[in-house]
Design a protein that fits this description.
Helices cover 78% and strands 0% of the residues.
């Protein structure tokens, strides 16, 4: 086993474990919903596998992932505080445009689709978790004047 393989395996395992724990904590606070928890744990493990796996996807699969990733990230972030299909179509589309710009911007800034998409996925995830915990503690979302 190479050193690179071991490092990737440790990173992947740690990331998947942290995401699973956060998912379980969020599920515990909201009441355990088997469907949401299953989806959340599935994507947590899938994220770990994505970090661990070094192979390349065929071009059509890569394009499909690149197109679907912003919408998937939007839906995953919306799951923190409510269900994404409660959003009206215009609001969903405006949010999706923001995510597409975010993904394109980080891809441009990093010069790499892999790094750009990773950063563009982590930022909304962190913001979504912060908003989730703020809503849990004070029953109102994060607003601009909270940032000081």
């Amino acid at each position: 086993m190479s050193k690179d393989y071991k490092v990737r395996a440790v990173k992947a395992g740690a990331m998947a474990a942290v995401l699973c724990v956060l998912s379980l904590l969020a599920g515990k606070g909201e009441g355990f919903d088997v469907a949401k928890m299953s989806i959340s744990l599935f994507f947590s493990v899938l994220a770990g596998i994505a970090v661990w796996w070094k192979g390349k996807f065929p071009k059509p699969v890569s394009i499909a992932i690149a197109v679907a990733a912003p919408a998937a990230a939007l839906c995953c972030m919306e799951f923190y505080t409510h269900v994404p299909w409660d959003l009206s179509v215009p609001i969903f589309l405006v949010n999706l445009i923001f995510y597409v710009i975010l993904y394109a911007g980080f891809t441009f800034l990093t010069g790499s689709v892999k790094r750009g998409y990773a950063i563009a996925t982590v930022i909304p995830m962190i913001v979504g978790m912060i908003n989730y915990f703020v809503v849990s503690f004070r029953s109102s979302p994060v607003v601009p004047w909270d940032i000081q």
